[in-house]
Design a protein that fits this description.
heterodimer; A: alpha/beta; 3-methyladenine DNA Glycosylase II, Chain A, domain 3; TIM Barrel; Rossmann fold; five-stranded mixed beta sheet; B: alpha/beta; 15 helices; Ac-CoA_synth_d_su_TIM-brl (chain B); Acetyl-CoA decarbonylase/synthase complex subunit delta (chain B)
Chain lengths: ~475, ~450
């Protein structure tokens, strides 16, 4: 995004504070544009006027241009499962946020027997990992042409397309690619890849079938040159693959190329390389070793480039021990750092507690919550955990800032119906909330016990303090 | 002249007067053209119309312009001549009358201009230079420097982001310390099985960490001093420090139990017995007597670890206290901004460390120190040690022996990219993988895979 301050955006707006966009003032709408929660076209008067007034049309287009992401966006697939890649604006997530997590594509190949293709596709489609209140899933399937037979590739591409996931079609042979595209181009697959040798044919294919295309070269001059050529010829959706080398100095070189492409695209304002970047951790399967070694190394490459700028990735390993850390790392890196991550307030049952087990309370700041939750569950502590809505703030801050109050604790006790689930009225509060002990007792009528400062010490604390001697 | 009229009417008017040229006319407005499928128009003509419309804004009101598009084209052509606008090359005189073009076929198979050769381009990498430099800190002392270590470790000295050697060559590859304890700690099974034989013997444990698992340093945690555990007196506990110093010849890091009241005393005693060895004392924090720990480090020539809880401002504050109030030398301070495990706050840890490192490189003298990470925290994540998911509906988690180490690897790698200089780790496999990977990214490993295209067609 070329503009950095709401003031620069404000100039382009009607400045009437009409509120039609849902924000009270044009200035606050401008601020939303800056942090990319709304688009210029979300201003109804501006859009209306642009339809009839040349001057406003020019303003709107200028604003769209100024506020479009630094890195181009490309969409792969169609309908609900389609994935958007690229669209990034910054090099470090704290400068704003990263926007589009890189989708993971898992490979099948056309000489694999049908049952195995089905097995792999099903694994992709059915994958679920519960995390921060939702299930993480996998995005797509990459079909490799290993037969070098257009008809074979065509039929396998068709078969895989029936799973409804976005696809990458992989073959350097234009004849094979054409056959597959004739079958599945309407699913908008990404084609892989145009190289220095086959680029003319792939340019023809990209234009003819109107599909996004990957350009592949280790030489960044060549890569830029291809991107320029494809763009000038009318291809709008371009992905750059600076070639993933899995080991040694090759890996170092890959790291350098990926960082340089992204940095030059954003800070160097070189539009010819400001496209989504592809990284292929699957290249790890070229290293020597057993499957675990290869799988591990694939996850290492993936991890490196999830942190540093990959916008789309191709994998081999569908084993959970590498998929799970990769999807979670991606989730973490692409979490918006501007808003504290929160969990749903309410009541959590830890290790199937009974009516005599302790009741704890913590905040809905995700980090606090997950720390407490995992400290309790991993120590096999049975208990009831009340999660207070502190607007995503931690214990210390929310006690000081008034988001953690006795009145809110009382409301939470009532809303969750915890009194009906336990046979006591003993509440353990975090050590950092000790000063609220008296207030909570007065407000709720429960006996309040100050727990340890660190939830890691709850186990030892319970041994000494639970069950409590009755205060009544 | 407020009458509105359609484009069609406009053309009719022109036709009526047999207008062939318009002079001194300026028409503003929008033109939208809708073409009905099969209306007998070449795709190229549509393009030309659209392009022309962009320039001319022919008329205020547009109509559903389906009628005689080819005729319109003729008029547009005249108009364009009149207005002095060039039609796209090749369009001024269509080879065949528009009506006779077979539209369907041409729309389906448009001809694309494929250039003969690639457009020339040169990639100019954007250069980044930072004004600051991260302090260099040396851990351990050889005989020449009054200690008994056979090797020392130097960290820091960066002038660019981690592994961005293309900006400026960073002098040191990050190092790995392996954690050992003065009593049996709680350990995940996947970790414990590698240390089963040494868990009751810290000296043996240290030897194993160095000899078998390649630790660059050893971190000895005196957890038995915890009043909630054995409450070992400080003077008793530090005997283990001497044993470990005897057992291995790499630099040592000494940690307490984390008890705020006890740690200052324990670390003070440890600093005394390790006099001359330039160990790192772990750690001074804002909520314990940092002054006492800092003084111990200063008095006995050790390095101090400045530990804060994921807050860049607190890190600045504590560093400043240690530097200004205690008088710690700038080459004797390392920071631990706190490590959270993958999935359990790693994003906060990553961004906090990245911000600290960038501030340091930009010249913030309170933050330009090497960073240490307690990567072993990764084993706190349930995904690393639990037998399987407690959540119904999760895809099964697979063997935990394989899950745990990679949890530690990914946690470490991510923070390495944020700028960590020193890792404290435990699983030997994780240590090996992170070491290999860091060696490669810093350019220490020369070999590569030759045919990097092979995966595209491999049949495995």
């Amino acid at each position: 995004m070329k503009v950095k301050s709401p003031l620069e955006v404000y100039k382009f707006l009607p400045q009437t504070n009409c509120g039609e966009c849902g924000y009270d003032t044009c200035m606050s709408f401008a601020a939303q544009i800056i942090d990319r929660s709304v688009k210029p076209t979300d201003c109804p008067p501006l859009v209306e006027k642009a339809k009839t007034d040349k001057k406003f049309e020019k303003k709107l287009n200028e604003l769209i241009e100024l506020t479009s992401p630094e890195v181009a966006e490309v969409v792969i697939g169609t309908g609900e499962s389609a994935v958007k890649i690229g669209g990034e604006d910054v090099l470090h997530r704290h400068e704003l946020t990263f926007f589009n997590p890189p989708p993971f594509f898992f490979d099948v190949w056309d000489t694999l027997d049908e049952a195995q293709i089905d097995e792999r596709c099903k694994k992709v489609v059915e994958y679920r990992k519960f995390y921060v209140g939702d299930y993480i899933t996998l995005e797509g399937i990459a079909v490799r042409c290993t037969s070098n037979d257009p008809e074979k590739f065509r039929s396998v591409a068709k078969k895989v397309s029936e799973y409804g996931k976005p696809m990458i079609l992989i073959s350097l042979n234009p004849e094979c690619m054409r056959a597959a595209l004739e079958e599945v181009a309407d699913k908008k697959p990404l084609i892989y890849a145009a190289t220095e040798d086959n680029w003319k044919d792939f340019l023809q294919l990209a234009l003819e079938f109107n599909v996004p295309v990957t350009l592949r070269s280790k030489n960044l001059d060549t890569l830029k040159s291809m991107a320029k050529t494809f763009k000038d010829a009318g291809v709008k959706e371009i992905v750059l693959d600076p070639v993933t080398e899995p080991l040694g100095d090759g890996l170092r070189g890959t790291f350098e190329r990926v960082v340089q492409l992204r940095r030059t695209g954003i800070l160097g304002e070189d539009k010819d390389v400001a496209y989504p970047i592809m990284v292929t951790p699957i290249a790890a399967w070229l290293v020597e070793g057993d499957e675990v070694t290869k799988g591990y190394w694939e996850a290492v490459i993936a991890g490196t480039f999830i942190v540093k700028y990959a916008d789309i990735m191709i994998f081999r390993n569908l084993e959970q021990y590498t998929v799970m850390p990769s999807v979670i790392l991606r989730y973490n890196i692409y979490t918006d750092p501007r808003t504290p991550v929160q969990v749903e307030p309410g009541l959590r049952e830890i290790n199937s507690p009974g009516p005599e087990d302790p009741v704890f309370i913590t905040t809905n700041f995700a980090l606090t919550y997950y720390t407490v939750e995992s400290d309790l569950s991993s120590n096999n502590i049975k208990g009831w955990l009340l999660v207070l809505d502190t607007e995503g703030l931690g214990v210390e801050v929310s006690v000081a800032g008034g988001q953690f109050t006795a009145a809110k604790v009382k409301d939470l006790i009532q809303q969750t119906g915890i009194e009906q689930k336990v046979n006591h009225k003993n509440l353990v509060i975090p050590g950092l909330a000790a000063r609220l002990q008296g207030a909570i007792e007065d407000e709720t009528g429960w006996s309040v016990f100050v727990g340890p400062m660190d939830s890691g010490r709850i186990k030892g604390w319970l041994e000494k303090n639970w069950p409590p001697e009755s205060k009544e | 002249m407020a009458n509105k009229f359609t484009l069609e009417e406009f053309f009719e008017k022109l036709k009526k007067y047999n207008v062939e040229e318009l002079e001194g006319v300026r028409i503003e407005g929008d033109l939208e053209i809708e073409i009905e499928p099969g209306s007998g128009l070449d795709a190229n003509v549509i393009q030309a119309l659209a392009a022309l419309a962009g320039y001319t804004q022919l008329i205020q009101e547009f109509g559903n312009f389906l009628y005689h598009t080819s005729m319109a084209f003729t008029y547009l052509q005249r108009l364009s001549n009149a207005l002095g606008i060039q039609l796209p090359v090749g369009m001024a005189q269509p080879a065949v009358p528009a009506q006779q073009i077979q539209p369907a076929e041409i729309l389906e198979k448009p001809r694309f201009e494929i250039p003969e050769s690639l457009a020339p381009a040169r990639f100019e990498p954007y250069k980044v230079e930072y004004p600051g430099v991260i302090e260099e800190v040396t851990l351990g002392a050889t005989r020449a420097d009054g200690g008994t270590r056979e090797s020392v470790v130097t960290i820091g000295g960066e002038r660019s982001l981690a592994f961005y050697n293309f900006d400026a060559q960073n002098p040191h590859t990050p190092v790995i310390a392996i954690d050992i304890f003065d009593r049996r700690p709680m350990l995940a099974k996947a970790v414990r099985e590698h240390y089963e034989d040494v868990l009751d013997d810290p000296a043996e444990w240290a030897r194993k960490a160095v000899k078998d698992f390649g630790a660059d340093l050893v971190t000895l945690h005196l957890i038995s001093t915890d009043p909630l555990l054995e409450d070992t007196p400080a003077s008793e506990a530090v005997k283990v420090v001497e044993e470990v110093l005897q057992a291995v010849k790499v630099p040592l890091i000494i940690g307490g139990s984390g008890n705020k009241e006890k740690d200052p005393e324990v670390l003070e005693k440890a600093a005394e017995v390790a006099e001359g060895e330039r160990v790192m004392l772990a750690s001074a924090t804002l909520d314990m007597d940092w002054e006492r720990i800092g003084n111990a480090a200063k008095k006995h020539g050790h390095v101090i670890l400045s530990w804060t809880q994921m807050d860049i401002n607190n890190q600045k504050t504590l560093n400043r206290y240690l530097l200004k109030r205690v008088g710690i030398e700038r080459d004797s301070l390392v920071m631990d901004p706190t490590t959270a495990a993958l999935g359990y706050g790693l994003d906060y840890a990553f961004t906090n460390m990245e911000r600290i490192r960038i501030s340091g490189l930009r010249g913030d003298q309170d933050l330009n120190f090497p960073i240490s990470s307690g990567t072993t925290n990764a084993w706190g994540a349930r995904e690393s040690w639990m037998i399987d998911s407690p959540i119904e509906g999760d895809t099964p988690w697979g063997p935990r022996e394989l899950r745990g180490p990679i949890w530690e690897i990914i946690t470490g790698m991510t923070l390495a990219l944020a700028g960590v200089d020193l890792f404290m780790m435990m699983h030997p496999g994780a240590v090996a993988v992170v070491k290999d990977w860091m060696g490669m990214l810093s350019g220490a490993v020369k070999e590569s895979i030759k045919d990097v295209d092979a995966w595209i067609t491999m049949e495995v």
